Amino acid sequence: EKDGRLKIADPSNPLLSNEALGLRDTCRDGKKIPLSQDEFNKAFSKVEKNNPGVAAVMQISYVLGLRTKEAVQSCKSVNSWLRELDSGHDSLLVVFGTKGGRPRDTTIINRDAVKHALIYAKNIMDKQNGKLIDCPNIKQAINVYRYHVRKAGLSGVKAPHSMRYHFSQEARQFYRKSGYGDKEIYARVSMDLGHGDGRGRYVKQVYFKGDDES
């Protein structure tokens, strides 16, 4: 008690320790490892034979570092992204499927790879009435996507999220070549991934765990 006021949330209070509260120490270190280009190509070839639309979604996720829900809904943005790309934009606006409904600009790390992925997707959409994965709703489309990518070997440490890990590595290299310092690099990668500029430290710990360059 201090000045007649009870200090309830004293951090040194043993009753408030994680152990006393039944909480385990949470480790935020990343559980995946980056999916290499060769590994991606092999999985992509398998998926493409069974479902080209899923392959297109997978490719967009790989070159733009999108979350699964964002990538599955990317068909809504492919045409506008192609226009932005052709207009010389340095980033693309991600609107659909974002966490918390917060749109973000994702930097174009490899312009040729992004253009190839978008044109590939557009060609499929033209044949499938504007869709990449033809399902009645987003939930079913995500299930179809996950089924095919896992069947192609993307599971465990190489689960679909490992494509975002790969994008993070590419983005960091891109920003380093552009002359940015480490703190700004991780802030920018964080923004590209949709975590916001204040979570650079978190992104470094999760996406670059055990990386000598970090």
TrEMBL record:
A Pfam family this chain is assigned to: Integrase_1
Stored InterPro entries: DNA_brk_join_enz, Integrase-like_cat_sf, Integrase_catalytic_putative
Keywords assigned: DNA recombination, DNA-binding
GO molecular function, one term: DNA binding
Domain spans labelled Integrase catalytic: 22-170
BP GO annotations: DNA integration; DNA recombination
The protein's name: DNA-binding protein
Lineage: Bacteria, Pseudomonadati, Pseudomonadota, Gammaproteobacteria, Enterobacterales
